[in-house]
User: Fold these one by one.
Assistant:
Number 1:
Amino acid sequence: MSEAMRTFLQEHQIHEVECVITDMTGIARGKILPKDLFLGGDFMRLPKSVLLNTVNGEQPNNLPYVGATDPDMVCVPDEATLRVVPWAAESVALVIHDCRNFDGSPVELAPRSVLRRVLAKYAERGWKPVVAPEMEFYLVARNVDPHVPLMPPMGRSGLTELGRQSYSIDAVNDFDPFFLELSAFCKTHELGVETLIHEAGAGQMEINFAHGDALELADRVFLFKRAVRETALRHGIFATFMAKPMETEPGSAMHVHQSVVEAATGRNVFTNDDGSPSALFFHFIGGLERYVPPAPLMFAPHVNSYRRLSRFQSAPTNVRWGYDNRTCGIRVPNSSPQNRRVENRVPGVDVNPYLAMAATLSCGFLGMTEGLNPSEPTLDSAEHIHDDLPRNLEDAILRMRGCAPLSRMLGDLFVQAYCEVKELEFATFSRVISSWEREHLMLLV
């Protein structure tokens, strides 16, 4: 352990350290260690197979991906991610770890390794991606029965929000105690959130992050989800990052704004010296148009994700692009030349942030390196275009398996394993008999 880490733990009087990795789903895995054991020098070990857990805790046949002996991997703390856990009852720290083999090489199955792999390809070209995620989520009333539909929570007014309150200040203020504590937690947890707004759905909120390094932002999104859920529990409500938690309300997205700068100078490569859009800007868009359709397994990773991607629900059903056009899956916001960027509106907020960042940046990278040209920008509504993206998880798996360029970007072994994890999830879901089937088929067919 570095001296800086030792000093941090001492200055904050830390008793325990949460040693965390993320699996393919985005769930935090790891161990909680006493401070002295953490500082003892021996890195945390976990079985590689823990990365292959489905969202419901099962695993596919992991022999092709980790070997017959189910070996360990070494989890190495990233000093830059060390921070205090503000909601813990005692003085607790958290640090995100990188997964490595015993020879020091990265574990290909680890989502953080996948994102590092993509960023390394940018670095080879002298480029550095800059991203800014926008995260939507719902506050809902406590619900311990999964068979009962979710409902908006009661605010400090004593009323339940039933109508839609887009950008309402008063609707946000109704949950002031929650947001004040969340703001304090985010500051202590060094998450760097910027803007809070009320989104369209009842109890739906949005948080924006300042733009920055893709790996750092993925770390912060990963930690932010946990901070929101922990804060909600302290206030007697739930927070959910499901893509479509309520039947009659719009889904929740994680839109990703992205640009690319020269690593050495910080110059935005999407803009020419005269302020006009560059060829690389259009190639990046062309890459998103070409490669987002086979990549939704990273942007819509669960069966519920495809309920969000439906027409007239403020969610894209296409990968057309346009200037300041929110009906398109790819939007170019109005901005100054130095801030020229592209917004990918396809990802849901239920993504693993490392994989969503890796996938969208891979699509753009392939466009830039293959010289792909985009279609003409869409000038009117694209709501009627809904044939670009897969309709369900099974379709997304098939498309992902069939895209060799994306597999090479993300890692062939990782893509094969990830598809197997998602196939097992889909098979498990397909065994469930829904209430709709009992209601409409039981006595009528």
Number 2:
Amino acid sequence: MNVQENIDKFIKDSKRVLKVSRKPDKEEYFELAKISALGVLVVGAIGFVIVLIGSLIGL
């Protein structure tokens, strides 16, 4: 494949994705926000526990 064919394929694929995609409704958006917030809390809690253990053992 040459460069022009790659560009044409990328444009064709991008148009197809944009046709299929849609804006999330309010319920779907809030569900995604809750899941993301839960993930941030879990990662923060794991980091806190690691720092706490490190400070207890003197690192």
Number 3:
Amino acid sequence: MTTTTEQLSATTLLRFATAGSVDDGKSTLVGRLLHDSKSVLEDQLEAVERVSQDRGQDTPDLALLTDGLRAEREQGITIDVAYRYFATARRRFILADTPGHVQYTRNMVTGASTADLAVVLVDARNGVIEQTRRHAAVAALLRVPHVVLAVNKMDLVDYRETVFAKIAEEFTAYASELGVPEITAIPISALAGDNVVEPSANMDWYGGPTVLEHLETVPVSHDLTACPARFPVQYVIRPQTAEHPDYRGYAGQIASGVLRVGEAVTVLPSGRTSTIEGIDALGESVDIAWAPQSVTVRLKDDIDISRGDLIAPSASAPATTQDVVATVCHVADQPLAVGARVLLKHTTRTVKAIVKEIPSRLTLDDLSQHPAPGQLVANDIGRVVVRTAEPLALDAYADSRRTGSFLLIDPADGTTLAAGMAGESFASQAKTAVQADEEGWDF
């Protein structure tokens, strides 16, 4: 008989994030999912019931299952990203409950950056508002492949189909313009449990899936092997022991694609070429390895390779550049200004860089571009041109979320300044000429 552990190991994993305006019911939806799917421990539920009673509430406030910070409980809002793990017989889940406030846009970017699906909540009484459009835009920027529109609080509009249909039509039209590939609209009441885990008896006009049913069945493609192979080197292994006197291996995690023994590869940024002589995985030699396996690669030729170099098949090696044009979300409290000296971290490689230009800042409310803002402040999303001290082998973020993303870091204290996505965003942007720097970090 198959054990529970074996069953779960055979199921797929879905990473999803929730987003919505303040008081739209994100945390309540997540709490309902956890509660109704029996993913809450008894002592957790008892603690929630106790706090709810202290507040004079007749029923447990399920939002408390995710709002764990003291300030969140006191203010009744979500401030930080709350990650939760739960599982059903059909699939395992990692969810990120993200804040709804405008000033916490950076937190939503963090939560949605690795998500396969985003659940955008809308209050049925308010419809699509400015913050709804903002969250749809962030999901589109981050290339989240699936978006669920959860029209919440249907119980407060008498479960009327016309209210749901109008909101679904408006949101779908807007998100489609942004390039969101798949949108599913579901009418729910997170507080009452309608269409969250169990089908609603109050909306017989709706024949689609519940939220959990959709989460369990939405196709999730983790087939990173379909992308060109990318192998960022993390560590060089040279034991120089009597047993392995000449062993030289390059350890790391395959970011995408497939590596094969005998394949011609190029090492970037140097451009030197060689052939894969061997691949070691879990202490054994293998002929083939694929993402996201962690392996050690041995090459036929002795090449100067160190942490931060990228090994890729010669037939599909990315081009290198020192001029990075990207969309960034600024996450630090201090502004990011033109001329700022930063560190750029891409996969395992970290290089010095200068912000040469900030062509525009994106206004997420209406997707308009504010030209030449001069700087980006916390939660701003904008286009940047960054000049790096050394060449980088970046893919376009549209082609690979793993090798097309990077971080900008303050070299003084290591603070993360911005999260970047290389290449074009959904808004049309033009490359701007990079001027020479005359103040020290001259690349």
Number 4:
Amino acid sequence: MSSAATRATGQDHLWSVDDHLEDILATVRPLEPIELQLLDAQGCVLVEDVTVPVSLPPFDNSSMDGYAVRVADVAGASEEYPAVLTVVGDVAAGQAEQPYVGPGQAARIMTGAPLPPGAEAVVPVEWTDGGLGEGPVSGMRARSTAPEGASGQVQVHRPAQARAHVRAKGSDVKAGDRALEAGTILGPPQIGLLAAIGRGTVRVRPRPRVVVMSTGSELVQPDEELGTGQIYDSNSFALCAAARDAGAIAYRVGAVADDAETLRSTIEDQLIRADMLVTTGGVSVGAYDVVKEALSSVGDEDEAGSGIEFRKLAMQPGKPQGFGTIGPDHTPLLALPGNPVSSYVSFELFVRPAIRALMGLKDVHRPTTRATLNADKALTSPAGRRQFLRGTYADGEVTPVGGAGSHLVAALAHADALIVVPEDDTSVEPGAEVEVVLLG
């Protein structure tokens, strides 16, 4: 990473949003793949194609509870002139042996059970008298209370075409097919498919471990009593939740007081469980901005290529930012500003893409769209700054929520989009088309 001289230059240079993000993504590398049990792999990204070893379903099976029959035996069947067949036994799901269905015969069959030899179709139980000798029934009697249902005769009231209500072997996926391709995020349906084709483990990039910590002696934990000049620590909760939403395993550290040595020691302690560190607060130009004090000299003396660089970005909110690597493993550290909106917008723009890059995803960005600005008056923006305003998006329109203040937590909670005002625009009129970053 940068040398001390380079970091000093970085503090004077005004970085663009794109250049800062490009620098982060050029530094962050995907985590090394590991083999995980299926449930442990939820949320992870596949690193190799998965081929189907056995067709799914692996055999022809019934899609209904009913009777397995020969087509010729039920041709022309009706309620007035039902086909009367001899029941030769039951076929249940998981049953190893099935009865043979010969001419004039039927086998009672359950959903998912293999189509028995000799049978060509399945008639639903609702098309029969259920073996009771009366009219159509709505279901089968439980075998435990009526074992005689697997014998005797059954009246079939409708004909059936060949393969009716039969799920063909391989109709879902065939042996040799590609079930999932590399780069797939494993959610519940994908894990279900892997289990269905017999895969108990899978090779993936693990979910990144992200440690989030706030700094500031004024911060108090929720449920504690506020003292004079104190506020509740909301940033670490919001960012920890955002990291989990991005796919990470996130750990929240209680707020660290404004003491550089304490912060440095806390960060060093957290390195053992972190693939990425995120701090919020203490990166501006105040006398108590301890993140800069604690980290400005960390890295270069001990680890070649390590170090944290503090920068000013041409954006609002979120002008002060810090980024670099720290510790023996060159763990990425992103230092975000402390104002709640600034920290969250910075997370969405920089930390979330970095987390997704660690996961090995190709597309690391939130989706964007163009929308018509629905506002009572023009939006103003400082020249030379890319501004990100909170908004709500619906039906091709975006409406601002709250003002531009970086402390407006309530407005942020009601937003589902960021309205982007480019660096060269100082005013955007109602009805204009704007770029929108969709959140969630």
